Amino acid sequence: MSELKLDAQPRSLTGRKVRQLRTQGLVPVVVYGNNQAPVNLQVSARSLETALHHGGFSQLVQVNVQGGGVHNVLVREIQRHPVSHAYTHVDMYAVNMSEKQHTSVPVVSTGKPTAMLTGMMVLQEMDVVEIEALPSDIPANIEIDITALDLERPITLADMPKINGVTYLGEDHEHVFVLMQPRVEAVEETATEDSSEPEVVARGKQEDEAA
User: Fold this and answer.
1) Which of 9, 13, 57, 161 could lock onto 17 through a cystine, CB 3.0 to 4.6 A?
2) How far apart are the C-alpha atoms of 138 and 131, rounded to whole Å?
């Protein structure tokens, strides 16, 4: 089970008045779901950053409210200032610990392809994978060994590691990692009467495409 914890305080300021909180280093939060009325809270921006950095974007977070009350939540929406990128508002979904949840979990590669040659590159086509799991079984990230990756054999969703309590959502054939060989284009220069120019080979690097 996740050990991520976040301290919060009840929040009375709403609407435009929440700007006062941000000047104090606080972030307005709303907790909803699990058949309960929405709860307005405020949290330290620094504590929120720490929780998110350690997996709080996908993993279960225990929110402890000053004066009593505990919420087991998944972070659903984060709003940031367009210039400073400071957190301006966070929506958190209170979960039922006995019900499976659909969520996205980051994918992290380990190892290096044995077939990797000079000039080749690894393209990660899925930065996150969709899973179904009980809240307590949701991992912070999923590691996959890409040693077996080669030009003829991409790593697909079917190759993702088996994790107790976790079901991958999607098609087995969907690519997670592929090994690519940049195109090589030969450009032939015509020699002039006064000089002789060698053939120029330009090695172009194929542009990555977002998955």
Assistant:
1) 13
2) 8
